[in-house]
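Help needed: design a sequence for this.
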């Protein structure tokens, strides 16, 4: 009986580790995503704000949204990812305030993923056209 119990515990532990370490990451997505700029406020007691500028090799809309979903998120915080095509003009740094980067780069932004303080996420194609900044 004790042997069966130990085998069951070992099997369950192995399955848990296998599932934990075999999950997809942003590196598994097609599109050659590269993080070009990152901002995180230093507030660890209140809402945490994360902003990213990411380059991608093509307009892979579904993969951009998946990338955004995989980025870190903190309850009551926000996570925003701005996507730019590789080789296009893009910001080297990002600001905590609006606008997140210089207006000269807005026309190069092809996508924006946002997860708000309530956990709701949205993805906008060509956000400058829809004024989603």
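Sure. Designed sequence:
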């Amino acid at each position: 009986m004790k042997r069966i119990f130990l085998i069951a515990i070992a099997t369950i532990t192995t399955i848990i580790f296998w599932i934990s370490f075999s999950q997809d990451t942003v590196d598994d997505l097609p599109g050659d995503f590269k993080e070009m700029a990152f901002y995180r406020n230093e507030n660890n007691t209140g809402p945490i704000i994360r902003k990213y500028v990411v380059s991608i090799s093509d307009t892979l809309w579904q993969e951009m949204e998946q990338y955004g979903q995989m980025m870190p998120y903190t309850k009551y915080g926000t996570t925003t990812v701005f996507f730019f095509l590789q080789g296009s003009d893009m910001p080297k740094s990002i600001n905590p305030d609006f606008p997140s980067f210089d207006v000269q780069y807005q026309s190069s932004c092809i996508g924006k993923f946002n997860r708000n303080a309530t956990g709701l996420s949205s993805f906008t194609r060509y956000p400058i056209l829809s004024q989603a900044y």
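The CA atoms of residues 80 and 114 lie 4 Å apart.
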